[in-house]
Automatic annotation (TrEMBL):
<keyword id="KW-0605">Phycobilisome</keyword>
<dbReference type="InterPro" id="IPR016024">
    <property type="entry name" value="ARM-type_fold"/>
</dbReference>
<dbReference type="GO" id="GO:0030089">
    <property type="term" value="C:phycobilisome"/>
</dbReference>
<comment type="similarity">
    <text>Belongs to the CpcE/RpcE/PecE family.</text>
</comment>
<keyword id="KW-0042">Antenna complex</keyword>
<dbReference type="Pfam" id="PF01816">
    <property type="entry name" value="LRV"/>
</dbReference>
<keyword id="KW-0456">Lyase</keyword>
<protein>
    <recommendedName>
        <fullName>Leucine rich repeat variant</fullName>
    </recommendedName>
</protein>
<dbReference type="GO" id="GO:0016829">
    <property type="term" value="F:lyase activity"/>
</dbReference>
<dbReference type="InterPro" id="IPR004830">
    <property type="entry name" value="LRR_variant"/>
</dbReference>
<dbReference type="InterPro" id="IPR011989">
    <property type="entry name" value="ARM-like"/>
</dbReference>
Amino acid sequence: MNTAATPYGFDLQSESIHDKIASRNLANGSDTDADMLEQLANHQDFYVRRAVATHFNTPVTALAKLGNDVEEQIRFYLAANPNTPVEVLEKLAFNESDDVRSQVAGNANTSVKVLEELTADSYVETLRQLVENPMIPANCLQKIANKMLDIAEKTVLSSLEAAVLRGISVNAKTPAEILEKICAIKNQNNYYWLLSLGVAQNPQTPDYLLGKLANHDDYDVRLAVAKNSNTPSFVLEKLAADKEYSIRQTATNKI
């Protein structure tokens, strides 16, 4: 064994480890400036680049550079960063990674044009992120809802598909006709009561639909109607006679 070579190899390894630790600390530091983050975006260490991709101080030039990173996880975090430039998000919207596209769908900085294009995505998590994005327009909600409702008519929804409809049910931009169709789902295996609960909680649910939900057989749905700030007095009066005390009390206190 060549003992003379051992200390030399160890020193090189130690130097490399110390560099990585120092660089990771810098990349994660809240006070690290844009110039340093620009340099760190080129670092060989995956964890350094990942931290740069999520940092709020990272300049747009560095974020744009990371859009071409070979590591999927770095592109994933980049797609979720609210500071990522629109043009980078537009490119990532067509990434081969399902998870990367889903993060673009949930990013409030993503353009409406890209959100509309992503409504055709086959990855259900992308659709869930879309319906929960505050920037999504009503026409996109309607398109996704029709797709999920069609599935609900033919088969049992997966938990993720039901989560998409749940997100639509509570979204204030969802058209009334879609809310009504969601409430019409009666299949016990299709989370029908949970979806109706979302509609009952929606501040934009129309009066006539809240009136229907006041007769729902599920306690939580009727209680949500009683708590909804938009529930009209004639519905509250109906709920004031509900068989459940807490619902009667909630409705009575709002009349």
